[in-house]
Amino acid sequence: MKAVISKKRQVVVEPKTKDSIYDVPVLVKALAYTITTLFALACLYPFLLVVAVSFSDEQVILENGYKLIPAKFSLEGYKYILQNAGQILWSYGVTIMVTVVGTVLSLFIKSLYAYTISRPSFPWRSQFTFFIFFTTLFSGGMLPKYIINTQMLGLQDSFWALVLPGLCTTMHIIMMRTYMQTAIPNAVVESARMDGAGEFLCYFRIVLPMSIPIIATMALFAVTMFWNDWYRAFLYIVSNTKMIPIQLLLQRLETETKFLQQNAADFGGSTDAMQQNIPTETFKMCLVVTVVTPILIFYPFFQQYFVNGITVGAVKG
Q1: Contact of 61 with 282, CB cutoff 8 Å
Q2: Structural domain of residue 282, as residue ranges?
């Protein structure tokens, strides 16, 4: 938009021309939409292939390989999950419990820390911000973490070994702090203090309700992290089979084809029968589908908060 001042000191606003930077040529738009669509299809194709293989016949897969359209429809993989659901359902329950407990505790700790360093009245907010940011620059490494968690804290083969090491994420705290500084006026908190509200009351009754977008975004990140995490269980769960999450079970199935035979008792079948009847390829894909589906269902409920929480929490700092 251009403003032209005439001789009579009147401001005349010229209409926006085609050369404006806000006008995008149709060809550029079409190219951008085409590239985005192709990229989305490229991301969607592997999942569709997994779903197709999970409904395919095992023998056809061994003979012809993976096909996007099943040559022969079969539900043997899903039937096998239902028939031998002992360790699978137990691992599913462990994963759900770890995800729920870890997400709730993670949001509580990160939001409390973010609220503390976001308040201008806190005198040591710069020091505490640097303290948490320093961990992104320097780390003791994997071996010290493992020694502390197993020998000093005694978390090996325990439920808390899957939860405690993943509760605090530096960038999530920084994003929540930035959101609370940007989207929540300090005058609102100060007025509540003048009315006699303490810090915890301000946090629970004012800050948290006004931070729903960033809370929902961080909840999505935490749920995805805890649900998909297998490496932490791989490190800390050694002999306690009751603490094996579904992701570690899937990883063992993918890397060790004889895992089901070696754990026949846990799956409720005999070793000989399992060696003959295991639909290995379709069973893998069926298990992948059952693992991924809850996240696909969970994501749309938080999508409406995702963009707002990310942009407001990451623009200013």
Answers
A1: yes
A2: 77-315
pLDDT tens profile 274-299: 544 566 778 778 888 888 887 787 77
Question: Do 250 and 141 fall within a single domain?
Answer: yes
The span from the CA of 168 to the CA of 315, in Å, is 21
Please report, for the domain that includes residue 126, its CATH number: 1.10.3720.10
Q: Which of 24-28, 95-99, 276-280 has the lowest mean pLDDT?
A: 276-280
| C-beta separation of 102 from 164 below 8 A | no
Tell me the two tokens of residue 214.
């960033």
Establish if 151 belongs to a structural domain: yes
CA angle 211, 297, 288 (to 5 degrees): 125
